[in-house]
Amino acid sequence: MEIYPAVDILEGRCVQLVQGRQDAATVYGDPLAWACRWLDLGADGLHVINLDGAFGRAKRNADLIRRLAGETETFIELGGGIRSVEDAAGWLDAGVDRVIVSTLAVREPEVVRRLADEFGSERVVVGIDARGAEVVIEGWERPAGDYLSWAERFESLGAGSLLYTNVDVEGLQQGIDIAPIEALLARVSVPVVVSGGISSARDVRALREAGAAAAVLGSALYSGRIGLSEAMEAAHAKS
């Protein structure tokens, strides 16, 4: 299993939010410096979120993200404010390895097929943001149906992987809820990246044993609750 530190960018700065709330941002500084730090410590890649895009200001961090992709030369998956095929294509052409589409995929599911056909399934991640058993979109405000049904549909449309985020525990640093993750892994065959609540080596081990392809470390990593080295050791341990 791989480990992707989160580099969430808001107004040009690396931040971590609690429960996706802009007013609950902790600022950590230069995104490029943090990206290089995590890579120097052995991270398998980076999970970059353009929070300004998620809040309707997609172009604000474009140059910074292009620089990050060019200078780090590492695997990067990018999400946040991708509202169209053109948005996704722009980021893929800018050097991002794969794009994360969430609200767009729910509103226009055929977009998943179009992106997969044009760029290859391996470059398309569909975000499954779930509160309980229901997908939530539009900033986690609007329920949109059963998360397992959506996951199966996105797989059938050509998504190369899924990003599952448990909104109920995201940012709280209180651990994961493994049950919905196991249910998702049992329903799809594409790789699943897990985000939300991962706060200990025990959480990482549970995800690896369940069969997750990768884990995103955010708030707990930046606060020091979990160290990258211990997360990497747990993720890469032999079963």
TrEMBL record:
Any one GO BP annotation for this protein: L-histidine biosynthetic process
Record keywords, A-Z: Amino-acid biosynthesis, Cytoplasm, Histidine biosynthesis, Isomerase
Pathway: Amino-acid biosynthesis; L-histidine biosynthesis; L-histidine from 5-phospho-alpha-D-ribose 1-diphosphate: step 4/9
Any one GO MF annotation of this record: 1-(5-phosphoribosyl)-5-[(5-phosphoribosylamino)methylideneamino]imidazole-4-carboxamide isomerase activity
A GO CC term attached to the entry: cytoplasm
Compartment(s): Cytoplasm
Xref: PANTHER family: 1-(5-PHOSPHORIBOSYL)-5-[(5-PHOSPHORIBOSYLAMINO)METHYLIDENEAMINO] IMIDAZOLE-4-CARBOXAMIDE ISOMERASE
Protein name: 1-(5-phosphoribosyl)-5-[(5-phosphoribosylamino)methylideneamino] imidazole-4-carboxamide isomerase
